[in-house]
Amino acid sequence: MRKSWAVVAGAVALAVGLSGCSVLEGDPNKAPEPSITIKRTPPPGSEALAKFYSQELSWKGCGVGQCADLTVPLDYSKPDGETVKISVLRMRATRPNEREGSIVVNPGGPGGSGVDYARAADFIVGKPVRQRFDIVGFDPRGVGRSDPVDCLSDAGMDEFLGSEQTPDDAAEAQGFLAEGKKLGDGCVQLSGDLAANISTIDAAKDMDILRSALGDAKLNYLGKSYGTYLGAIYADLFPKLVGRFVLDGVLPPDTTPEENALGQAEGFERATRAWAADCVDGGNCPLGNSVDAVMAGMRQMFKDLDAKPVPVSGDARVKELTEAWASTGVAQAMYDQGQWSTLTDAIAKVKQGDGTDLMGLADAYASRDPDGKYTSNLLEAFFAISCLDNPDSPDASTYEERAKAFAQKAPTWGAFMAWGGAVCAQWPVKSDVKPHKVSAPGSGPIVVIGTTRDPATPYENSVRLADQLSNGRLISFDGDGHTAYGRSNSCVDNAVNDYYTEGKAPPKKLDC
């Protein structure tokens, strides 16, 4: 879990589950005119891409919303070479006569579907925003419907995700490294040149071509989790094309793989302690009668499952809950406190020798059905993109040392997060991306949101990016769960809604 295997699990599940719901005013199949008609030309220095910037999208009704394909170069250094089709979905503003433009959205990952996310437009932005903006989502290259990267069979993914992920000795460490190499080699074998051209920089360049195709002079954007990293990279490349930008639950581009891993370990530790307090307050907590006792009980549960997995029923392939699957299930519940009671009940059943319910949480994390079918390539794309963006050390001793150091600050999650980087240790394709600060001089206000007990994207990350940006604004939400806009309180929601609809940026710092 370098950043998070399913940072977008809750958001994507919402989008998929509610994709049949939308309340529209007007004809959803009639394409509105852009609020600002501009000449579709590339920004200075990108003239070789003129044919891509000049394209107009051919929208067609597709059940809920309108769909189109955007054409972009596979390799931006070879604009006359192969191309990639990017799947785009637009949910029209519910009051077309008041339409102000588009907001492009990304739910995170990497690997999350922006198409599925945009389908839930009624639920991911406030009503005033929904009325006045088209909500546009796209599956980034390599993801979902946009030439998806493929790395392993479904059975191979089961083996990878269920295997030992906190090695206890040198043999287990080499085995884990071998599993990561198998995944990377599979990406190259099954996906060819695509595997080398799905970095976040590529996706950010695609997003600017999408901006032009939408007819917008500047890009309005809502990015959550990894979507903040994508947004920050866009702002770094195209600062003067930044419109109304909101980055919620931050992954700063200047953090190293080690910093990311430690930050997540500490974030999940805080979130798990918050769940533990809730478990104790509810009475009859299956792991202990105090927060410290519950945390110790969680670690013992993982250790016991490592030595002796418990049975799982009703699954086509996975017959036992291993330590790896259990940790994935627990992590899933940390993204939203609405899942805490489900986790408590699932752990109680594990203590009784039944891993079925905790495996169900792990399935949700992995976008996996009990019949063994993965409903998206989220995890394959996650690693394929992450390992291009943030390559890590090939030396197993690096992760052994990190595991020991991280355990001092995050006893429950330190080893999991430390060893997560090893998946990218021997990744077969490389990039020249380096961690770097983003200031985006000349941009409009960029609103950054941080949740104080966010497990996947620690609050400190949001403070860090807001401070680096030349025109950053920080909204701090004192609460639990992953991200804040649309799931926290009216203080956050009203500030973001006013920014989008009125152009009224929040103050430099706003506490909610």
TrEMBL record:
Keywords: Hydrolase, Signal. PROSITE patterns: PROKAR_LIPOPROTEIN (PS51257). Residues 103-287 form the AB hydrolase-1 domain. One of its GO terms (molecular function) is hydrolase activity. Residues 411-512 form the Peptidase S33 tripeptidyl aminopeptidase-like C-terminal domain. The keyword Signal applies. This is Alpha/beta fold hydrolase. The lineage of its organism: Bacteria, Bacillati, Actinomycetota, Actinomycetes, Micrococcales.
